[in-house]
Amino acid sequence: MRDGRKWGVASAALVAAIAIGATAGATATVAPTKLVVNTTSQFRKFAGFSTRSANSLPRLTARFGAPTTIRRGANRCTVRWVGLGLTARIFTIGSVAGDPCVQGYVLGVSVTKKPWRSANGVHIGDPIAAARTACEARYTTADCAPVSGRYALQYQSTSCEFNPGRFVVVYATANAAGRVALIRANNLVCD
What is the spatial distance between Cα 21 and Cα 19, in angstroms, rounded to a whole number? Predict the structure, then answer.
């Protein structure tokens, strides 16, 4: 938590979703739709499939094609599609055993290439001021001040007994040229 705001971390029910379309060079079997990181609190889908279902890596591969890299950890799996500018973070929760890439749930995504955009109109490559403007259309000016280079795009409230509060769950960061370089969506353990 910084300046009173809490920043969401990867956990169990995806608050942000991605509706994805095909891009040049992609081998994915994806309908040609807009590449959008949704920024509303009620989404439970990522690229057209439920984040409440395990078997994540096989479903992601079916959706986006073979990933560029897969990194496994004890309870996590990070999968990247460099050509799409997409990284998915998959985690197992609680006492779930087995391969986190297969048994886990997609709990966060990062996008870094055009034509990705947030549902509230912030595109990869936009001036970072666009992130603050989009935030201020929904939240107070104080809610939208950047913290450690992160510009909030979506908040989510939770009544989790171990950490209740309001968290930033979708945010943008800028590159050295002051342009949006990354949009990241995380979810909360409970919502």
Answer: 7
Looking at residue 15, what DSSP letter applies? S
**Among the listed residues 159, 168, 156, the one whose alpha carbon sits nearest the alpha carbon of residue 4:** 168
pLDDT averaged over 10-residue windows placed end to end, the chain, 191 residues: 47 30 38 49 52 77 91 92 91 80 86 84 93 92 89 81 76 94 78 53
148 alpha-carbon distance from chain centroid = 18
- Taking residue 52's Cβ as centre, other Cβ atoms within 10 Å add up to 12
- For the record, the structure tokens of 114 come out as 């055009």
Distances from the Cα of 9 to the Cα of 61, 96, 136, angstroms: 24, 19, 22
76-104 burial: b if 16+ Cβ within 10 Å, else e: bbbbbbebbbbbbbbbbbeeeeeebbebb
What's the CA gap between 190 and 11, in Å, rounded? 8
Six token digits for residue 54 = 């395990």
Place of tokens 């799996």: 77
| pLDDT number for residue 36 | 58
